[in-house]
Design goal:
With 386 residues, this protein is α/β, with parallel strands linked by helices. The protein has helices at 3-7, 14-23, 35-40, 55-60, 62-65, 84-91, 105-110, 157-165, 186-193, 201-205, 271-290, 317-323, 331-341, 349-357; strands spanning 11-12, 28-31, 49-52, 74-78, 98-102, 114-118, 125-131, 136-143, 146-150, 169-174, 196-200, 214-217, 222-225, 228-234, 243-247, 251-255, 258-259, 262-263, 298-301. The longest helix has 20 residues, at 271-290. It is globular and about 65 Å long.
Length: 386
């Protein structure tokens, strides 16, 4: 089993692999990672058979470990980044009818985007992108032939393709805050599209090293799109720089301040020491800036627990108020509840913040994202594996 042999292995693009899983294709998925790593986070295959066969075990006894695999099986082999899976796929030659390694592994699969339209009044068109493997949501907002993209994920081709499909040009890109749980695609997309890159003044104050590439935005700013515009809304609490976008009177892109079924955690910027004051700030934000909006306003969150969905996640604020009991609490009770409910911090979150600030090189940074996100302060908000 050599690197030369592995180089000849047939690969399947991550997007095609995901389509097979969604369609319940007759394939068997083999995850080559260590069992403890596999147990923490792996592909959710639905009805497709999934096996965890670590590379070392297969190398030691390929015939024994593959004894239960039918000769006519179609195999899909996956690892973290697509290297071990190619070696394993090479070793499995002759053990199955078809063996393909998932290109770029879990890193590639975790970046696959699904998208659906959000129903909003003209002149706006809103498309929600779901990074279902990690529960990240991002948006394309278009009007008058121009588009804004909010919180783009890495691998920006999907946004460019969707803008073209709608006959619009991406002229603005906005990150709602300095992300702690996933890498930002905002700089890459702005460069590819020739668009203006926006972050809030508060985000720049956190030490963004590429501030010369950014046009700062402030609470209340109007960002033109064709003959229409969207409005910037400061939503501090999850972080000091959290920023939302009002789309007319119809919808609020709320960043990570409020989710369909939970509220943000307040500890990813200043840690445990700063969490209580951030939680109080979040309570004021939700009470004064979100609760005052009409109940029919759509909430467009930037995270959800993860997993495959059919259709956009866009509840009304009325539905969110019914689903999130924290919204009915007074300040002290809210702070106590939020601080007691926080799950473990996201894996590698400090390194991810460093990359997004421009402090750390982004070479091989994609590996930092392997795993589910933990953005909400809600004991029932369990990150999905798909």
């Amino acid at each position: 089993m050599t690197d030369h042999t592995a180089a000849d292995v047939d690969e399947i693009p991550a997007s095609e692999f995901e389509r097979e899983l969604r369609d319940g294709a007759d394939v068997i998925v083999i995850d080559t990672r260590a069992r403890d790593v596999f147990a923490e986070w792996h592909v959710e295959t639905g009805g497709v058979r999934l096996l965890n066969v670590p590379e070392g075990e297969l190398v030691a006894d390929p015939d024994g470990t593959m004894a239960g695999i039918p000769q006519d099986a179609r195999l899909r082999v996956i690892c973290n980044a697509g290297n071990a899976s190619r070696r394993v796929a090479a070793a499995l030659e002759g053990h199955a009818r078809e063996t393909r390694s998932v290109r770029n592994g879990l890193v590639g699969w975790s970046r696959v985007l699904q998208h659906d339209d959000v129903p909003v009044p003209a002149p706006f068109v809103v498309v929600q992108f779901r990074r279902e493997a990690r529960g990240c949501l991002s948006y394309l907002v278009a009007a008058g032939g121009e588009a804004l993209v909010v919180d783009p994920a890495p691998g920006v081709e999907a946004y460019l393709d969707e803008a073209a499909a709608h006959g619009t040009r991406i002229v603005r890109v906005l990150d709602t805050h300095v992300h702690a749980d996933h890498l930002s695609g905002a700089r890459e997309l702005a460069r590819r599209a020739g668009a203006v890159l926006h972050m809030s003044e508060a985000a720049l104050a956190r030490g963004v090293r590429y501030a010369d590439e950014v046009v700062a935005i402030h609470d209340g700013d109007e960002l033109p799109l064709g003959d229409a515009s969207v409005r910037v809304v400061a939503l501090p609490g999850h972080t000091s720089d959290m920023t939302g976008v009002m789309i007319g009177d119809a919808a609020l892109i709320g960043g990570d301040s409020l989710f369909a079924d939970g509220v943000a955690r307040p500890d990813l910027e200043d840690g445990d020491e700063g969490a209580p004051s951030a939680a109080r700030r979040l309570h004021r934000t939700l009470r004064e800036r979100v609760a005052t909006l009409p109940e029919a306003t759509l909430l467009l969150p930037c995270h959800y627990p993860g997993g495959r969905r059919d259709g956009a996640i866009a509840p009304t604020l009325r539905a969110v108020r019914e689903a999130v009991p924290e919204l009915g609490l007074g300040e002290d009770a809210f702070v106590e509840q939020v601080l007691s409910a926080m799950p473990p911090r996201p894996e590698n979150y400090l390194a991810i913040i460093g990359v997004n600030l421009g402090e750390l090189p982004d070479a091989d940074a994609a590996r930092l994202e392997i795993g589910a996100n933990n953005c909400a302060a809600n004991p029932d908000w369990v990150p999905g594996t798909a």
